[in-house]
Amino acid sequence: IQELVLTFYFSLIGDMSSPAIIHLNQSGPTEFVFRVFTSSPKIQVLLFCFFLFLYVMILCGNAAIIWAVYTNISLQTPMYFFLSSLSFLEICYTTTLVPLMLSNIMGERKPISLTACATQMFFFATLGSTDCFLLAVMAYDRYVAICHPLQYTLIMTPQLCIQMVTGPLGLAFFLSLPLTSLVFTLPFCGRFLEINHFFCDIPPVLQLACADTRVPQAVLYVISILVLTTPFLLICISYVFITIAILHIPSAEGRQRAFSTCSSHLTVVLLQYGCCSLVYFRPPSSTPADEDRYLALVYTFVTPLLNPVIYTLRNKDVKNALKKAMSKKAAFENL
């Protein structure tokens, strides 16, 4: 499957008559295993239950937002369209990582093949990059809504909203695929190699390659700048204009409501970009052995969980929509 995907990609960017095919370069049937969090059976059970609970909460919370938006006409606006898109992305993103992580917490460690590891890395990089781009899109939406309220419906048309969601996904795809293929053209020497992580992230996998990794490391830095730094700068610029516009609102209640909406978005932004920057911008030699794993738990569990918590508990429109939907369902079941 991976070879077919790589063939398709390089046929798009290269000669269509003779597409380049990249084969996984390996010394024998190499497989990876993930480092365990703990060897204590009791703590393993506790970690499994804890992470499973968080995963179920992420699925239920984000699914509730999608359900509320698409069953309530009053929420079918650009802001909630982007919010529901983010919720759907969070579901896919965590599902790419968490089930495999849970299966490796208890019992014997289960090996993962090169192809499976490459597939997980590709989907993680694509969905994670799209997540970062989408946060910048949501900041632009808030900028237009607060700074140009009279032109909001004219600017944020349904066609533009769809393009602002599919565009980041396409960009993330074409950034993640060559990076993943570049990592897995490196040779990996040995039968079983231990990844110091709970999923196939790029930095710990690069550390296991028995070849010069300076080129893929440089490519990773460049793509990290495009995915993390550029959207973050755009978000900061948007919020500078948003803050100036909010300060000109005459009523204190209006200023408080605007700041409340923006602070929710900024909370997710700072956690997402802050933790990712610590992982991908530091030199590999300066990274402590287990620190990246703990930072990854933040953007694997915390930020996907904050999304539904912030936008439901602090948003009256979403809470009212969920209450109406639940009351309608209860009334239908009583008939």
Characterise this structure.
The chain is mainly alpha-helical and 335 residues long. The chain has one domain (2-327): Rhopdopsin 7-helix transmembrane proteins, CATH 1.20.1070. The protein has helices spanning 2-13, 41-71, 78-103, 114-147, 152-155, 158-183, 202-206, 214-247, 252-280, 291-313, 316-334; strands spanning 31-34, 112-113, 192-195. A 3-stranded mixed β-sheet has the order 2-1-3. α3 packs antiparallel against α10, α4 (114-147) runs antiparallel to α6 and α4 (114-147) packs parallel to α8. The longest helix is centred in the middle third of the chain and has 34 residues, at 114-147. It starts with a helix and ends with a helix. Mean pLDDT is 82; it is low at 1-28. GO terms for molecular function: G protein-coupled receptor activity; olfactory receptor activity. Residues 61-311 form the G-protein coupled receptors family 1 profile domain.
In short:
Helix content is 73%, strand content 3%.
Q: How many domain modules?
A: 1
> Based on the structure given, which CATH architecture is correct?
Up-down Bundle
What quaternary form is this? single chain
Task: Describe the main β-sheet briefly.
Answer: 3 strands, mixed
Termini Cα gap: 49 Å
Q: Please give the share of residues in helix.
A: over 70%
Into which percentage range does the β-strand content fall? under 5%
InterPro entries: GPCR_Rhodpsn (IPR000276), GPCR_Rhodpsn_7TM (IPR017452), Olfact_rcpt (IPR000725)
Membrane topology: Multi-pass membrane protein
Family: Belongs to the G-protein coupled receptor 1 family.
Pfam family, one: 7tm_4
